[in-house]
Specification:
Layout lengths: L7 H14 L15 E4 L2 E4 L5 H13 L12 H5 L3 H4 L3 H13 L4 H14 L23
Antiparallel strand pairs: 1-2
Helix pairs in contact: 2-5
Length: 145
């Protein structure tokens, strides 16, 4: 965070974090109830248990599996299809790249946009069960509800 410029947006975020992490604050949120966020081009999105973009890729693996029967034996896809994310990602960056390439290539930009638009309209965060679009942080520093 030290690389951020000192701007009103940075100060607002830092003040929000202070308010929700300071036990004496009326807005305090216990650590067990906090959700991590990641700065994604100015919009704060959930980062745990994975980036929203990666959740999309994982769902695409499941959707595309019917066209790729070899994935049931081929890593990292075989582990993903068995629900074992940890084993799938044991291959590190190479595995993540394979997943991304398999799920994000071979289509026009407008086709990809339509897929993402349809997915984000119904996709739910695996921990909270809320829509991913409800899991962002509004500029006014209030968690979306």
């Amino acid at each position: 965070m030290h690389s951020w410029n000192d701007t009103p947006a940075k100060r607002s975020i830092m003040e929000f974090v202070d308010r929700v992490t300071r036990e004496a604050s009326p807005e305090f949120v216990p650590s067990s109830e906090r959700v991590a966020v990641f700065d994604n081009d100015g919009t704060l999105w959930c980062e745990q248990p994975m980036y929203v973009q990666f959740a999309f890729a994982l769902d695409r693996v499941k959707a595309l599996a019917v066209h790729h029967p070899e994935w049931t034996e081929e890593e990292p896809f075989a582990s993903l299809l068995k629900g074992d994310l940890q084993a799938a990602l044991a291959g590190g960056e190479r595995a993540a790249s394979q997943i991304t390439m398999a799920t994000h290539s071979g289509m026009r930009a407008d086709e990809f946009t339509a897929l993402v638009t349809d997915w984000i309209a119904t996709a739910r965060h695996p921990k909270t069960g809320r829509l991913h679009t409800e899991m962002g942080m509004r500029p006014a520093n209030r968690i979306c509800s």
